[in-house]
Specification:
This protein is an alpha+beta fold. Helix content is 76%, strand content 7%. The strands form two sheets. A five-stranded mixed β-sheet has the order 2-4-5-7-6. The protein has a two-stranded antiparallel sheet with strand order 1-3. It starts with a helix and ends in a 7-residue tail after the last strand. Its EC number is 2.7.13.3.
């Protein structure tokens, strides 16, 4: 054992020394180089070589390369440096930064008309899209690459792109299209003798067979894949192949075979430091032990997988693990932990960044449950009505008894039996009062339950609107039309404006109204997160309003108007600017009048702007909703754009 450890340490030291020697050699070449372009290329190479051993040094080399390319106005080299920085950030799970650098590299390559550079940047961009569950956008850029590689007769790269396209189609559920492109890729790889490519396609086709329920055919493909991978040097996909075939053996109720392959994957992943494969190995072992009623081991491996999933920021794996760990602890009888993970699963599942293709089924189930709750509410209301009738009858009876008691009191002085009758009547009255008090408590309880049901309805409506938003998001992934994408995104924004109203309603004590200022601030923050992240603008947002409460009939049209006016300001007011300001104000201006003003300090409206002839759906919607509210809309363009709406005969709480 000691001898093996020493040999391993020696190998690491030799490798480190070799890399250092390479870096020193490149440093010498860098010092001797005269051409700025050569210096940029050498800095990028040193950064890539240092990435595995010294991240800070690698980042320093790559940033120096980018600055040097900018200083000497080297467009292609600027693209190379940005692309290298994008790959570095992607490998360190910093996807937002990676996207920024890859976009910059694409811009540089397009400026220099470097088609090969565009293709390399597109490949990196497609990986980012796939990591962020944006498969439709990944497919779009991959088809652009396919055309390029076919035009230069590069069969190897064309086959790789076809395989990537099929992966994204498989993820979206288009199995027939995926099989078609996998087959094309397989034909290319076999014709040029590229065995690794054949193995990758076999593995990907096995995934489809597994999803369609043909597990034995899936296992057959994985065995062929593993046989090819094991004959290659340091194949990176081998741990994943071990995990996948182990998962199939779990489905086939063959736990020994499944555990054998999970352990092989885990051992290989640990040797390579492959955190993602390790996380999935632990997850599959968790599922396996849960399925064979060994929840203690299931919980142990589930927690190890969850720790790694959080480290690599894999959101979907965290969702699956939260659900699986809840099952493990429930089987162990630790219901506190089971409930904790179940709540964590619901919170992760509820977020819009994590809606799956099965959401339509979930939508139907939610609709069924909502209708069920509504029926229960009707029944509860009928029960309350019956109880109120009984209460009225009891009140009448009490009046009769009180009248009888008065008569008894008048006769009390006449005879002793009258005194006894009075005492008896008093006792009966006490019993009736107790019964009435009990009935009152029942009514109060029923009313509280009704309030709870109303909150549940608003919550369900909010959830259903979020489901609609998520379905729109899924639809956007399957279209390449910019106009269609913009229309879908605008629809999502309007759905969000309505969902936020129902969210505010069930979160407040009084279910019939919402606070306008709180609602407007949350809606403004939501819109700024969409537009400012995509444009890089920094907009100052101000919401001014006294303590005005709106009911739902007024809040929804006002919310939609606010959504359209703020969105228009972000899209058009600050073109060519890096910042600006948007203000929102709602105030009382008369006995039963409200005035809503939305203003910006942007470039203002066109000189020939006519609100009545506006063709955009947003402004048409503003006009329609203003008329619905019996309001008057005016527009000014002085130091920016200002939209003012005065609403007549509206009752609000202040």
């Amino acid at each position: 054992m000691i001898k093996k450890t020493c040999l391993l340490l020696f190998a690491v030291l030799v490798a480190s020394g070799y890399l250092q020697a390479q870096t020193d050699s490149l440093q010498q070449l860098f010092q001797a180089a005269k051409e700025p372009g050569v210096k940029v290329s050498l800095l990028i190479t040193m950064g890539q070589q240092s990435a595995e051993t010294d991240s800070s040094a690698a980042l320093n080399y790559l940033n120096r390369a980018l600055e040097l390319a900018k200083d000497h106005n080297l467009t292609k080299e600027r693209g190379d440096a940005n692309l290298a920085l994008g790959k570095f950030n992607y490998e360190h799970f910093s996807y937002d930064s990676a996207k920024k650098y890859v976009d910059a590299s694409l811009a540089a390559y397009r400026e220099s008309q470097d088609k090969e550079g565009i293709a390399r940047a597109n490949l990196q961009l497609s990986e980012l899209y796939e990591e962020q569950d944006r498969s439709a956008e990944a497919i779009k850029v991959l088809f652009e690459n396919l055309s390029y590689y076919e035009s230069i007769n590069d069969s190897l790269e064309a086959g790789k792109v076809l395989n990537r396209i099929a992966n994204s189609q498989n993820y979206l559920g288009y199995h027939d299209d995926a099989i078609l492109h996998y087959t094309r890729a397989m034909d290319i790889f076999e014709s040029i003798g590229y065995q690794r490519g054949v193995a990758v396609v076999l593995s990907n086709m096995a995934i489809i067979y597994g999803e369609e329920g043909d597990t034995r055919k899936s296992v057959k493909n994985y065995l062929k894949t593993i046989a090819i991978y094991e004959g290659l040097d340091n194949e990176p996909n081998l741990p994943s192949a071990y995990n996948n075939i182990g998962n199939d053996y779990t489905d086939l109720k063959m736990p020994d075979s499944a555990l054998y392959y999970f352990n092989k994957s885990l051992a290989l992943s640990k040797t390579r430091g492959d955190l993602r494969s390790m996380a999935f190995s632990y997850f599959h072992m968790n599922s396996l032990y849960n399925s064979i009623d060994m929840p203690e081991k299931g919980a142990y491996y589930g927690n190890k997988s969850l720790e790694l999933a959080e480290k690599i920021n894999n959101h979907q794996l965290r969702i699956n693990l939260s659900h699986s760990l809840s099952e493990s602890y429930e089987k162990l009888g630790d219901y506190k932990q089971a409930l904790r993970y179940h709540k964590q699963y619901q919170q992760l599942e509820d977020s819009v960044y994590n809606i799956e293709n099965s959401q339509v089924i979930h939508d139907m189930q939610a609709k069924y449950e909502t209708e069920k709750k509504e029926k229960e509410l009707v029944l509860k209301q009928a029960d309350i009505d019956r109880q109120q009738v009984l209460l009225t009858q009891e009140a009448r009876l009490r009046s009769v008894l009180i009248g009888g008691m008065v008569i008894v009191l008048l006769l009390a002085g006449l005879i002793y039996r009258g005194e006894r009758a009075k005492t008896k009547a008093y006792n009966q009255l006490s019993i009736q009062n107790q019964e009435i008090e009990t009935k009152n408590k029942l009514i109060e309880s029923a009313l509280a339950e009704k309030e709870s049901l109303l909150k549940e309805i608003h919550h369900r409506v909010k959830n259903n609107l979020q489901v609609i938003s998520s379905i729109l998001n899924m639809q956007s992934r399957s279209t390449a039309s910019p106009e269609m994408l913009t229309a879908i995104q605008e629809g999502q924004s309007r759905v969000k404006a309505m969902a936020l109203i129902h969210q505010k309603l069930y979160q407040t004590e009084k279910l019939s109204e919402i606070d306008f200022k709180e609602y407007a601030e949350e809606l403004t923050d939501h819109l700024s997160s969409i537009f400012e992240s995509s444009t890089g603008e920094s907009i100052v947002k101000t919401v001014t309003s006294p303590d005005i409460k709106l009911d739902i009939d007024m809040a929804i049209p006002l919310g939609l108007i606010l959504n359209e006016l703020i969105s228009n300001a972000y899209k058009y007011a600050f073109e060519g600017k890096t910042g600006g300001a948007i203000s929102v104000e709602l105030k009382r201006v008369g006995e039963d009048q409200l005035q809503l003003e939305v203003a910006d300090n942007g470039k203002g409206l066109p000189a020939d702007f006519n609100l009545e002839k506006a063709k955009s759906l947003g402004l048409k919607l503003v006009n329609i909703l203003t008329r619905q509210l019996n309001g008057q809309l005016t527009v000014q363009s002085i130091g920016g754009a200002r939209f003012s709406i005065v609403i007549q005969n509206m009752k609000v709480s202040v």
